[in-house]
Amino acid sequence: MAQRHAVVVGGGIGGLSAAIGLHRVGWRVTVYERAAAFDAIGAGISLWPNAQRALGELGVHPPLAPQRGGGLRTARGRRLARWDAAAFERRNGLPLGVVHRADLIETLCAELPASSLRAGVTVTSVSPDGLVRHDGGEVRADLVVAADGIRSPVRQAFWPSSRLAYSGGTAFRGVARLPEPQQLSTTWARGTEVGVLPLLDGRVYWWVSEAVPEGIRHADARAYLSAAYAGWHAPIPALIASTPEILHHDVFQLATPLPTFTRGRVALLGDAAHAMPPFLGQGGCQAIEDAVVLAAAMSTSDTVAAALTRYDAERRPRSQHVAQASIRAGAAGPLLRNRVALAIRNSVLRLAPSSVTSMVGGDINAWSPPSLPQPQASEPPTNPAS
Prior knowledge:
It is a single chain. The chain has 2 domains: 5-63 and 79-165 and 253-364, FAD/NAD(P)-binding domain, CATH 3.50.50.60; 169-252, 2-Layer Sandwich (D-Amino Acid Oxidase, Chain A, domain 2), CATH 3.30.9.30. The longest helix is centred in the C-terminal third of the chain and has 29 residues, at 304-332. Helix 1 runs parallel beside helix 4, helix 2 (49-58) packs parallel to helix 9 and helix 9 packs antiparallel against helix 10 (304-332). It is of the alpha/beta class. The strands form 4 sheets. The protein has a 7-stranded mixed sheet, sandwiched between helices. A 6-stranded mixed sheet has the order 8-2-1-12-19-18. It contains 11 helices and 19 strands.
């Protein structure tokens, strides 16, 4: 029997994870990435226990920084809640981990054969029967995985009524290096969140989320942030001042859930399927879950059609549930602007026992991946491709 071939459109976290899973269960995989290299535009990413289990099933072990302490604060530094990392780890079996996106992409690429990674290729169309056209020709695949991001051309072609909606928040992100060690912190003010997550090797990933109208831009993001957050507690001003490059983008989500993640031989995955706001830190985590479930379905189903039916049945309800939970988390946290509601929320947080933080994520973190078969002998992995 001829080896089945999958084309993955998009070489981000979800696409590469899907390629690894399919390669592990015996498929030949080709990943088309539009950018000139497989690298990451971004800063850090939090990998919650559910995603860490999924990566473990894929045999992938990125350089994670476990978050062992810290908590939730006001802008002046007053503690609202302590992060009970020990209780969280006892409850979930794993700590919250953080990794730089570039390090995660490098780790994922290293698990794939060099022949699978095709950078600098733009996919121009995908057909339900598996025909993929790109700027260098065309190929027919047994499976097409559309992991082409939040503005997915494949999703838009197959579900033209789907649209993105502004989440209500804009985000600044960066990675800095400070001389002294840092701890996890999340800081809430009216319509604002600032997050601080230490990475390995003394680096710190930080973000600022602001509830503002869509499209607001600043001629100098650093100057704006330095002035706006000058009076906030340490290390926030120092992080802003020390960051070589500050990214700024508005945050979008799918306006309405898709009725299905599949069409013919095509499966949507990650942001293409369930773009969500970042208020639970689950966007990338859900993409990794998608990847493991897709590979498991392909390894145990008689046909691609049956496997995709299983994939849709397992992934669509869960990922759409997480997306809605993330929207609710944003409304009660970073996007909350009503002063009375803010006062009530903060009072409740101060009175709650620290063990409450171990329940963050609840049933989301409890998820475990399906088992994949042992790797088959094939072309050895390579170093990250460019």
